[in-house]
């Protein structure tokens, strides 16, 4: 079964969201029109129903689907790249995903151009079939090209971090899937969880429900971190189950999350 990919786009002037899907043998198009009151109406739906999870999420403006986590209420970063939440159990409803083979959902960029929640059912059908291409032309909010050669092995402070890793979905230069994240967040925070999902899918051929949500504070352009939730669907989470918060930090460097500026910490 071919994967379904939903990529809404938000147009400020017309306040419309168009949700596109690629389906086996047919294309489904759902136009979501936002009224002046900020509510969605569903004028038409062609050919294929959307998963229940997506229908529920679109009853409120998709572009406001940012995490409800308050970073100020989370444990302060203590040198560990991530921390478990809710006893490491995902908060999504497994019934939303159990009948899906492969699909992806990307919330549209918000009014500041920031990314929102991204969801997927990762399965063999979703895995990439070609090498990853360039993403250098994407400039997520808060992006700066800055180096700290003596502090970071790969030199550059920021990566264009995929919310849903390329190795899991094959989704590459989608601006709704790329955020400004530190090298530390990308490799020490998110990557181990992505690899756990990838190993399970490759080794068992099973499916994993995955949701990744960037956590912003106010109008800041750089996320304080990301919330990652996953559960292996075919064994009820026996092999893959996690709910974590990964810190968007870089040891030795102080980040201004309002605009992405950075400097060495006083101890350096």
Write a short abstract of this structure.
This protein has about 270 residues and is an alpha+beta fold.
Instruction: Give the topology string: H per helix, E per strand.
Output: EEEEEHEEEEHEHEEEEE
**How would you state the average pLDDT, rounded?**
79
Give the assembly state of these chains: single chain
Helicity range: 10-25%
Q: Which secondary-structure class do the elements indicate?
A: alpha+beta
Low-confidence parts lasting 5 or more residues at pLDDT below 50?
9-66
- Placed side by side, the strands forming the largest sheet appear as 1-7-8-11-12-13-6
What's the β-strand tally?
15
- CATH homologous superfamily caption: Extracellular Endonuclease, subunit A
Known CATH architecture: 3-Layer(aba) Sandwich
Structure, explained:
The structure is a single chain. This protein is α+β, with helices and mostly antiparallel strands. It has one domain: Extracellular Endonuclease, Chain A. The protein contains 3 helices and 15 strands. The strands form 4 sheets. The protein has a 7-stranded mixed beta sheet with strand order 1-7-8-11-12-13-6, with helices on one face. The protein has a 4-stranded antiparallel beta sheet with strand order 2-3-4-5, with no helix packed on it. The longest helix is centred in the last third of the chain and has 22 residues. The protein is globular. The termini are far apart.
Question: What's the helix and strand layout?
Answer:
Layout: E1 4-6, E2 9-11, E3 16-23, E4 26-34, E5 40-45, H1 52-57, E6 82-84, E7 103-106, E8 118-122, E9 158-162, H2 166-169, E10 178-182, H3 183-204, E11 208-215, E12 225-232, E13 241-247, E14 253-255, E15 262-264
Parallel strand pairs: 1-7
Antiparallel strand pairs: 2-3, 3-4, 4-5, 6-13, 7-8, 8-11, 9-10, 11-12, 12-13, 14-15
